[in-house]
Amino acid sequence: MRTSIFSPNTLQVELAINREKFRFTEDKLRIAEERLEQLYQALEHMRVDHDDWRLQFEGAARDLKHTEDLLENIKQTHASKSKTAYWLAGATSCISFIASVLSNIGTSLLFSTPPNPPLAYMTLGISGTLSIIATIVMVIMAKGG
What we know:
The protein is mainly α. It has 2 helices and no strands. It has helices at about 10-110, 115-145.
């Protein structure tokens, strides 16, 4: 008995095989679609996370800029206070120098051969006053004001 290629049994077997292949392919397609849906959901979460990170970065950048501005203001304030301190220190030194010179002149006038007490006392008084002023300026500098 000869079987033909187109026998009903052969066609039914091929049909059954093709149905199984089709079901397997459908299952693979369903699994691939589910996986694709999961990937889309993950991508959406990553977009939301990216936006959150971007907003946090922008906030941090703004805070950093504000902090840099504050630091620059503090540096400028410190520099101006430092300059003021240098000027006050210089003024104190000059006042102390003038006070010591006047003190020497007053002492010389007081103990000279023809003494001149009124002028000597006046120069010693001015010298004492300048010494007190220099001391007050030094105390003000020491307190930082």
